[in-house]
Design goal:
This protein has 259 residues and is an alpha/beta fold. It has a single domain, classed as Rossmann fold (3-Layer(aba) Sandwich). It is 37% helix and 14% strand. A six-stranded parallel β-sheet has the order 3-2-4-5-7-8, with helices on both faces. Strands 1-6 form a two-stranded parallel sheet. Strand 2, helix 2 and strand 3 form a beta-alpha-beta unit. Helix 4 crosses helix 6. The protein is globular.
Length: 259
């Protein structure tokens, strides 16, 4: 399926309204008031490992609500350990995230689940393509894995980060670093067929104020899940939490039957 690959599109601005992202506070309040946040009415896990990967310019810290909730419903959650997501993704994977995947896989003895927000979801898909023997599923939250179409402010910030990477890692990264034209393992794995052995979920919102939601889906109704809300708030959205609980339980059961 074409939607399972990273497509090389000319980078362009998304026609989105970033002001909508100011509503993220309401989503956090809604989450805290929801019974789902306290583990009620959703299927629980049995100690499976779930690794959370932050989005562009984010750190593990803003995923704290999701991290704690996953433990509440029976999963062994892990922060990515990548630090600030404003670095060459290939280096973040090789130097940090791969270690977290290995640690979680060794600790549980089972393939791990990856949940990535925005750019974190694209990184998760790359890791899954590189290590399908250690990854059971990937869930992307507002991740434009079909091409770099985002708000102009995001594109400008991306340019600034790319210039810093090229300056600080001169001679150690490829000239196309932080673009879809790069030939590193990170980008190459995204352009390859997504492994059939790794389950997928792509969560998106049509009111996304950061990226074009049409680039966050595979086109397969069995994989794509639409929710209402903001881009940033996908990590606080109680409907997303329900989707995660249902899908992780489904993947765990599917893996148990095939073992």
């Amino acid at each position: 399926m074409a939607g399972n690959r990273y497509s090389v599109h000319e980078r362009k601005e998304a026609e989105v309204s970033m002001w909508q992202e100011l509503l993220v506070g309401f989503e956090l309040v809604q989450l805290r008031l929801s019974s789902i946040f306290y583990g009620l009415g959703v299927p629980h896990g049995h100690g499976e490992a779930v690794i959370l990967i932050p989005g562009f310019l984010g750190t593990d810290s803003y995923l704290g609500e999701l991290f704690s909730w996953l433990r509440t419903i029976g999963y062994r959650s892990y922060f990515s350990g990548i630090g600030w997501n404003a670095e060459c993704p290939n280096l973040l994977i090789r130097r940090r995230l791969n270690d977290t995947v290995r640690r979680a896989y060794t600790a549980t003895g089972c393939r791990v689940h990856l949940v990535g927000h925005s750019l974190g979801g694209i990184i998760a898909r790359s890791v899954a393509a590189q290590r399908p023997d250690q990854v059971a599923s990937v869930t992307t939250l507002g991740s434009p894995f079909r091409g770099p179409v985002a708000h102009s402010n995001v594109l400008r910030a991306s340019d600034a980060i790319r210039n810093r990477i090229l300056r600080e890692h001169a001679g150690r990264v490829l000239p196309g670093c932080y673009t879809e034209e790069c030939t590193c393992e990170f980008v190459a794995s995204l352009k390859a067929e997504f492994p059939d052995s790794v389950a997928q979920t792509a969560v998106y919102t049509k009111s996304d104020g950061i990226v074009d939601w049409r680039f966050c889906i595979t086109g397969d109704s069995q994989i794509d899940r639409e929710v209402a809300g903001t881009h940033i708030g996908l990590v606080f959205n109680p409907v997303v939490y329900r989707v995660l609980a249902d899908r992780l339980a489904l993947f765990a059961n599917r893996h148990a039957r095939s073992a």
